[in-house]
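ASSEMBLY PREDICTION REQUEST
Request ID: AP-0331
Submitted by: J.K., bench scientist
Number of chains: four
Total residues: 384
Priority: normal
Notes: Please return the full assembly, not individual chains.
Input sequences:
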Amino acid sequence: MTVTDFLLNLVPFSQEELNDIMLHFEEEKVKKNELLLKEGKICNKLYFIQEGMSRSYYLKEDGKEVTQWFFGEGQFMSSADSFFNQTASFYNLEILEDSILYSITFEKMEFLLAKYHKMEKCIRLLSIEMFTTLIRKMNATQFHTAKEKYDYMISEFPNIAHRISLGHIASYLGMTQETLSRIRKNESLKKK
Amino acid sequence: MTVTDFLLNLVPFSQEELNDIMLHFEEEKVKKNELLLKEGKICNKLYFIQEGMSRSYYLKEDGKEVTQWFFGEGQFMSSADSFFNQTASFYNLEILEDSILYSITFEKMEFLLAKYHKMEKCIRLLSIEMFTTLIRKMNATQFHTAKEKYDYMISEFPNIAHRISLGHIASYLGMTQETLSRIRKNESLKKK
DNA sequence: GTGATTTTTTGATATAAGTCAAAGGAAATT
DNA sequence: AATTTCCTTTGACTTATATCAAAAAATCAC
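STATUS: Completed
Returned structure:
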């Protein structure tokens, strides 16, 4: 899925509008393990993942990494609060696989938002979708066992879960690696 | 805080624009314990709370209520996913205190969004804010003790926490009433 | 004000998951 | 291919919180 396909799925831009919008995006090829953003910095870019996979994570008080979200092909990626409000980011953005991204700076995005009524609608819909997915995670994790949380993870990220290290998955789900290992073992035993 | 103040805080509408927008809102006086929305129904209205307090909640598998969010004076309230996508709501919306609300239907909101570029921006900013507050909850609860969760609750809702029943607070924080009671007791002991 | 109902607290016990440590396996590096 | 590093699993033990039940307190209805 390309950026233009994604945008067209949300709002019916004209070809002319799309062409103009795409002039403000830039292609970036990035390597696994690159940090696109470090906590404390302001996130000045919104990224679209054409190929590859990434995650946003923060460090908890004991210094351990906690994954906040995973981003796969066909998704926008950012530290949303930092990008939209231009404030210091709580998160790091890390590339998990060699990737091809399309990025746009905050300034250019603000320009497009002011220029195109449709662009405002588009990013509004994107924001609502981000909210919806986050609520889904809250509801699927709170008051749920570790096993149920793992089931949610598999259903939320069916196409990329198998490409993610178990340590990252555990932290995303709010559990320890040991716990995840145990429930995965129980799950495989139960399938026999 | 009035609806117009709230909107003006987000986007500089003209007086004329605001007047037009307010023509689409309706004042509603509602009583404590009223259900504005039942799960399974489509949420057709977005509410602004002028006075009072409400919550959104869902039923978990064992039939117990889990509060998803609290809404106080000066806030918009809805089952966001249901309202914006016009899909069946997972949540109930319950009035916790006699309230004065200003409501707008989905159809009228869509009309205003199409009519005013500024309105799209306004609701985009509102959506981002909703997302931000939800992330704040996730980060404050995941990998945190029950006490830490309670501290987050007090800081998130300083003006309304004392008006909310402890059972609702407990479910909002993802813990049992018993646990909340115990940490509150420990907190009061420690303050001596 | 009285009785009924609901909410909060308390006590005892159980349990799911965390913590610590190390073994085993897989991937990366040389 | 051998070695090093990182990831995953396993075992033993601990702990924070859930569960169950009931007492105490607060609120509601008449």
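REVIEWER COMMENTS: Strands of chain B lie at 26-30, 35-37, 45-59, 65-71, 76-77, 92-105.
SIGN-OFF: pending second reviewer
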